[in-house]
Write the structure tokens for this entry.
Amino acid sequence: MDVIKGSEKEVARESKIKEGHAIERLTTDRVVVEEARRLIHIAPLEKVLNLARGYSFWPFGFGLACCAIEGLMGPNDPRFDWSRFGYEPLRNSPRQSDVMIVAGTVTRKMAPFLVRLYEQMSQPKWVIAMGSCAIAGGPFVDSYYVVPGVDKLVPVDVYVPGCPPRPDALLHGMLLLRDKVQGRKSVISHA
Amino acid sequence: MPDERVAGRLAALAPEVPSLAVGEDAVTVAREDLTALMRFLKDDPECAFDFLTNLTATDYSDHFTVVYHLVSFVHGHLLTVKCDLPREEPQIPTVMDIWGGADFQEREVFDLLGVVFTGRENSRILLHEGFKGHPLRKDFEWAGGRES
């Protein structure tokens, strides 16, 4: 996987911050400085919260078609087991979840309900578009009643392509979302 | 062919329902006689079609055909009833008062083909109320969602 995590510039900036740890203003004792560097990290509170958010998504299962089997049931089972990553509680209420996994074909009649449920989710919230249908209408894009992609309705953070994608692919998508939430640069290029 | 007992009862009914025609795979009837025939099939103890498994319709471009699939749990036999409708005036009496399960299926046929069931309220079931046209009609034209 050609995932690029952080440019060289960022790595350099981070090490610079580490060099100038606040403990050095208080003491020059090498032992104390080393231990403080190891144990005490100074960062905005939001960064700490994002660390927690990224490791404990509560997905909201929006299963609309066959993708629900691969994307909502599959990762739940012991073979794929997304609770390894902390994504265990698949909620059925938008108010208790922060990631909406749109798994399946969105019809025009379903569209207003999808938007309403998205609006009912509390901030911060993210959306994963799973499968060809949720990404762009899939094989049904030319029919009279299919929305050509869920990004026409709500902002999408991660697209997981496939028809349907395997549970591994969804897990990869969740991990990419984790990187996004925790502020690491995460870009996939197949060029 | 219908079950022998059913065929016998239908032959006895034929004088009362002139449009009744017993074919190889289905019984056809005119819509004027539909309610009488259906009521008979439900109530007659030899037929006793107590369950409507399927109700659907087809657009043959020059006419519609509404199809009823009946089953009798008492005797274990099946029957298909067909009824042709002119395309200009696609109206047919409801069978909801005979088999309550016809409700959603009649609404679906109305929704997708525009066949009006008289004697009941017709409302869409799959598409939203503001949708224009009936998409399973052969002359239905639409613009797909694809972005060029």
